[in-house]
Amino acid sequence: MHSFEYKNGSLHCEDVNLQDIAEQYGTPAYVYSANTILDHYRRLDAALAEIDHCVEYAVKANSNLSVLRLLAEEGSGFDIVSGGELFRVIKAGGDPKKCTFAGVGKTRAEIEYALEQGIYSFNVESEEEAAFINVVAGEMGKVAPIAFRVNPNVDAKTHKYISTGKSENKFGVDFAYIEAAYERASQLENVKLIGLQMHIGSQLTSVSPFIEAVEKVSPLAAKLKATYGIEFFSIGGGVGIVYDPALESAKPEWWAAQEEEQRPLTIEEYAAGVLPKLKELGLKILLEPGRYIVGNAGVMLTQCLYEKKGSAKTFKVVDAGMNDLIRPALYEGHHEIVPVAQPAGDDNIKMDVVGPICETGDFFMQNAELPNFPVGSVIALLSSGAYGFTMASNYNTRPMPVEIMVDGDQAKVIRKRQSLDDLIAAEL
Ligand SMILES: Cc1ncc(COP(=O)(O)O)c(C=O)c1O
Ligand SMILES: N[C@@H](CCCC[NH3+])C(=O)O
């Protein structure tokens, strides 16, 4: 679905002109398309329709209450990684009984809170954690539903910082030790083994690592079902999106030539790849997509403050920085840049698009051939709906940006721009 398109010479989100948004609410600003989020959720849900399944949206990708509410109303479950995320889900009207709790370092307070709220499953990442949950649950007179996260030692072929399924990654229980972990946990009085989980990494652009992981782990899932009566197998999230031109009408010529290789992993291809093996299991299949649901549903708007010509380069300095969108600095992430006012001709120049932060790594693009957008104009960084706002910080004492949700021709502020007073409110 193309939620961001040029209409009458200006970039729109659904039927709302992004120039108007920038003028009314200022920049930097995150803008999300509600209908794109829903479309992605429904497409994934439909692709898995032939098996018993549940989508557990990965809250970390975009945890705005309005986004969570939208998905909760669709019936989504939620994959959380902290007590804070569970708190958000509940505030947004989500059902704790549809929540799974991942993460290698759950604290006592988080475990107690999740037990009080009655979450569906703790996705346990070590035997030590299982033993601790057993103690906490016992003290509370409860039985904790748990699944182990298995680390299948499969190469997800993604950026090394977001690969999670290799033995050298900190996540999950080593494939070699997993059966022993279930055997020992089955002796614990205050936990109940109800599932098995894995997640091999994020931003996967090919289906083969998913297939490899499912084929490797399915026999284990079948065995655990037979031995301990587990009811679910979660295959995690990780479906990648296209970060290169997502915007059909803004695709440069070179895109067409490369389109074949850079084709996104479609959700239908993903489902066709993993379904055959999963169908045989007769288990409830859980999915934990984050980026696929929200990534292409959001942009970040920023205004050009200065153009600075050096002997080596031309720098366009914009009013958003790596504190607002850290993906380029952290993972060499690519977010396509398009001017909100549609460029009339072909006046591309080579430039670095940089932010105001005192860090050399504070850039959105380097040596990029981009339309020569003028000072004062607004540009959009595409595909910023996932891991954009949620990874933003107050570095350099910069207030957090505003977030806006568009639905048809309506735009609504779903998080106010932070004020400096709010920013320092908790400090003594
Ligand atoms: C356990 C777990 N589940 C789901 C996700 C969501 O990943 P993605 O946004 O790539 O779908 C992550 C993040 O990589 C994760 O760590
Ligand atoms: N934050 C990463 C993805 C990590 C997902 C969490 N395991 C990104 O922006 O691409």
Automatic annotation (TrEMBL):
<dbReference type="InterPro" id="IPR000183">
    <property type="entry name" value="Orn/DAP/Arg_de-COase"/>
</dbReference>
<feature type="domain" description="Orn/DAP/Arg decarboxylase 2 C-terminal">
    <location>
        <begin position="31"/>
        <end position="385"/>
    </location>
</feature>
<feature type="binding site">
    <location>
        <position position="327"/>
    </location>
    <ligand>
        <name>substrate</name>
    </ligand>
</feature>
<feature type="binding site">
    <location>
        <position position="238"/>
    </location>
    <ligand>
        <name>pyridoxal 5'-phosphate</name>
    </ligand>
</feature>
<protein>
    <recommendedName>
        <fullName>Diaminopimelate decarboxylase</fullName>
        <ecNumber>4.1.1.20</ecNumber>
    </recommendedName>
</protein>
<feature type="binding site">
    <location>
        <position position="387"/>
    </location>
    <ligand>
        <name>pyridoxal 5'-phosphate</name>
    </ligand>
</feature>
<dbReference type="InterPro" id="IPR022644">
    <property type="entry name" value="De-COase2_N"/>
</dbReference>
<dbReference type="GO" id="GO:0008836">
    <property type="term" value="F:diaminopimelate decarboxylase activity"/>
</dbReference>
<comment type="similarity">
    <text>Belongs to the Orn/Lys/Arg decarboxylase class-II family. LysA subfamily.</text>
</comment>
<dbReference type="InterPro" id="IPR022643">
    <property type="entry name" value="De-COase2_C"/>
</dbReference>
<keyword id="KW-0028">Amino-acid biosynthesis</keyword>
<keyword id="KW-0210">Decarboxylase</keyword>
<keyword id="KW-0663">Pyridoxal phosphate</keyword>
<feature type="active site" description="Proton donor">
    <location>
        <position position="358"/>
    </location>
</feature>
<comment type="function">
    <text>Specifically catalyzes the decarboxylation of meso-diaminopimelate (meso-DAP) to L-lysine.</text>
</comment>
<dbReference type="GO" id="GO:0009089">
    <property type="term" value="P:lysine biosynthetic process via diaminopimelate"/>
</dbReference>
<comment type="pathway">
    <text>Amino-acid biosynthesis; L-lysine biosynthesis via DAP pathway; L-lysine from DL-2,6-diaminopimelate: step 1/1.</text>
</comment>
<dbReference type="InterPro" id="IPR002986">
    <property type="entry name" value="DAP_deCOOHase_LysA"/>
</dbReference>
<keyword id="KW-0457">Lysine biosynthesis</keyword>
<keyword id="KW-0456">Lyase</keyword>
<dbReference type="GO" id="GO:0030170">
    <property type="term" value="F:pyridoxal phosphate binding"/>
</dbReference>
<dbReference type="InterPro" id="IPR022653">
    <property type="entry name" value="De-COase2_pyr-phos_BS"/>
</dbReference>
<dbReference type="InterPro" id="IPR009006">
    <property type="entry name" value="Ala_racemase/Decarboxylase_C"/>
</dbReference>
<feature type="binding site">
    <location>
        <position position="291"/>
    </location>
    <ligand>
        <name>substrate</name>
    </ligand>
</feature>
<feature type="binding site">
    <location>
        <begin position="288"/>
        <end position="291"/>
    </location>
    <ligand>
        <name>pyridoxal 5'-phosphate</name>
    </ligand>
</feature>
<dbReference type="Pfam" id="PF00278">
    <property type="entry name" value="Orn_DAP_Arg_deC"/>
</dbReference>
<feature type="binding site">
    <location>
        <position position="387"/>
    </location>
    <ligand>
        <name>substrate</name>
    </ligand>
</feature>
<feature type="domain" description="Orn/DAP/Arg decarboxylase 2 N-terminal">
    <location>
        <begin position="36"/>
        <end position="295"/>
    </location>
</feature>
<feature type="modified residue" description="N6-(pyridoxal phosphate)lysine">
    <location>
        <position position="60"/>
    </location>
</feature>
<dbReference type="InterPro" id="IPR029066">
    <property type="entry name" value="PLP-binding_barrel"/>
</dbReference>
<dbReference type="InterPro" id="IPR022657">
    <property type="entry name" value="De-COase2_CS"/>
</dbReference>
<feature type="binding site">
    <location>
        <position position="331"/>
    </location>
    <ligand>
        <name>substrate</name>
    </ligand>
</feature>
<feature type="binding site">
    <location>
        <position position="359"/>
    </location>
    <ligand>
        <name>substrate</name>
    </ligand>
</feature>
<dbReference type="Pfam" id="PF02784">
    <property type="entry name" value="Orn_Arg_deC_N"/>
</dbReference>
<comment type="subunit">
    <text>Homodimer.</text>
</comment>
